Amino acid sequence: MKRVLVLLAPGFEEIEAVTVIDILRRAGVEVVVAGTIAGPIAGCHRISLLPDTTLTVLENDAFDMVVLPGGAEGTTNLRRDLRVANLIRRHVNQARYVAAICAAPAVLADMGLLTRRRVTSYPTYQSDLAGSVYSSERVVVDDRIVTSRSPGTALEFALTLIELLVSPEERRRIGTQVLAAGASDVD
Predict the structure, then answer these.
(1) Which of the listed CATH numbers 3.40.50.880, 3.40.50.1980, 3.40.50.720, 3.30.590.10 matches domain 3-177?
(2) Where are the chain's structural domains?
(3) 3-class SS at 31?
(4) Residues 12-71: pLDDT tens digits?
(5) Distance CA 75, CA 107 (A)
(6) What angle do CA 103, 31, 102 make, to 5 degrees?
(7) Is the dihedral of CA 5, 11, 137, 133 positive or negative?
(8) Scanning 22, 49, 104, 167, which has the fewest C-beta atoms within 10 Å of its C-beta?
(9) For residues 155 and 19, is the Cβ–Cβ distance under 8 A?
(10) How do residues 127-175 score in pLDDT, each as one tens digit?
(11) What is the pLDDT of residues 94-136, one digit of tens each?
């Protein structure tokens, strides 16, 4: 079974976090939600989630993928946390997937991981991704780095993660199950 870590920092974008967690779990992926702080964490729209654990408890664990939800404040908090950078760097060095949506690709850019890579983000964060090959596509996969644009692309982002971790068939199955646009010809 594939294992994915979703990191939550105060101010995270709720749609991006919950959509990824839900869709990956529907596909049978083990999703571990870790907070950068203990206890419930409030998102940018004051919806609180209770992570499974804290980053401190499992910062040395290995996952098949690490996912960073965006949100301006959440991204700022991820950028300031050295544990996040260490975890991501280790996963990249081990040729594991790292995925970031909305503002969160800026965390990867700060680490120099997006240089000459095809990426996308929320449009106002494009300037934070200097040195990358910026795209306005909704989801971009460049080797083991996956980026997406916004809360409005969260479902496509999550389905792409299923395709990478499980299979294209599982992406279609889950997409059809939730009636995602383009997932099936059946109305």
Answers:
(1) 3.40.50.880
(2) 3-177
(3) strand
(4) 999 999 999 999 999 999 999 999 999 999 999 999 999 999 999 998 999 999 999 999
(5) 7
(6) 10
(7) negative
(8) 167
(9) yes
(10) 999 999 999 999 999 999 999 999 999 999 999 999 999 999 999 999 9
(11) 999 999 999 999 999 999 999 999 999 999 999 999 999 999 9
Tokens linked to 157: 């982002």
Cα 6 from chain centre: 7
> Which residue's entry shows tokens 């700022």?
76
Residue type for 151, please?
A: P
- Residues 100, 102, 145, 162: which is the catalytic one? 102
Smallest CA-to-CA distance from 79 within 107, 54, 118 is with 107
For 94, 113, 119, 141, 183, the CA distances from 144, given in Å and listed in that order, are 10, 11, 12, 7, 24
Contacts of 132 by beta carbon, 8 Å cutoff, 6+ apart = 109, 114, 115, 116, 117, 118, 119
Token couple for 180: 């995602």
Structural element, H or E, at residue 145:
strand 145-148
Q: Is 44 a residue of the active site? A: no
Q: Kindly state the tokens that stand for 69.
A: 């939800």
